[in-house]
Structure prediction request, 418 residues.
Amino acid sequence: MSLAVSSLALCAGPAAAQDASAQAATNSIWTRPSLLDGPGWPKAGMRSDGVNLDVTLTQFGQELLSGDGNKAPEYGGKLDVVLTLDGQKLGLWPGLSLNVHQEFLYGNDANYQGDGTFIPVNTAMAFPRQGGADTQTSIIVTQRFSPDVSLSLGKFNMLDAASRTPLIGGGGLDTFMNLGLAAPISGVTPPYILGGSLTVKTAPATFNLLVYDPRNAQDSAVLRYPFADGVTTSLSATVPISLGGLPGFHSFRGVYSTQDGVDLRDVPQLILPPGFPTMIGSKSHYWYVSYSFQQYLYRSPNDPRKGWGVFGEISASDGNPNPIDRHYFIGIGGNSPLPNRPDDGLGLAYFSYALSNELNQAAEPLGIELGKENGVEAFYNVAITPWFRVTADIQDVSPFVRANARAVFGALRTQIRF
Prediction:
């Protein structure tokens, strides 16, 4: 066999030499996709056996540079361990896979520095911490029936879903950091959900049906008593388009929930002193609709996965019990257009979130004047190697609380993929 291969290589000439060069480049510590992933390394052998293990350490240094609040610099980090099992390679049946995502947070973050912002300025450090824990596990079982039909069941980390969106995606780990961009807020989808997702690809569009418990699945009661408070149904349709041979899409989403929520007009009742009678009403059901788009303006002729383009989204909701009445954002992002820097990433975007009128009116008797939360975020992500990145990020945010000054945050983020 070795002689036959050698003879073929000699006959192939330059082509074989290029293949050998490519293999050597892959084995180089400077060009491999992750630090411990090269030919002959354990990760390659595990993948061939149906076991894929990805470990990523992301560290953040972030500070409130101007505005109201605590201006002390904050340092923290997040370790993501993702295990994917291929059922067929493990001796089960085709199309079956299991995904387990374990998160670990440590240190401090710059969210809620007393600057008046409501939307977290560091998405990756906000979750699962906002649910009261620094660790969280998500487990999803997927059965792919064909290249066009798949069904997934389990506990979903919705930041993972956001991170797979081209141009803007990243879930706060390697693109935008502000939650308003990294994982757009709908008010109807918790950060962790228990439910199922059915995806069907057709010629005109890709359809996704998502049915889930409306409560945050970080709560153990959701796992013990699923759908006790109702059910939320989300239906989306994504239509691919091509302009000048460059890909893009339009996406439409509608959400309806049977869960009851607090009537936001009764918010002042929530702060009455003990002993005072409270009359907190509930609001039945809620809805949410959105439209988003992305369009590449440039694609690398050498790698179709790389390029840059524009994106945007606009939404509306019932405004009660959903505290977010509407939002929109628009921006540009993707890979750097700088020569010899095709692996770098960049982004620039503007966002605006408006609270519901009922919530604004309810806050007035409390002496709180609320408005929109608007902001601009820009970042540049330097790929030192494919597995080590350094990102500089700047955010300028006008908080919901009008009494507070504009808040400017600066951040430095590093990421190592093991």
Summary: Residues 148 and 187 are 30 Å apart (CA to CA).
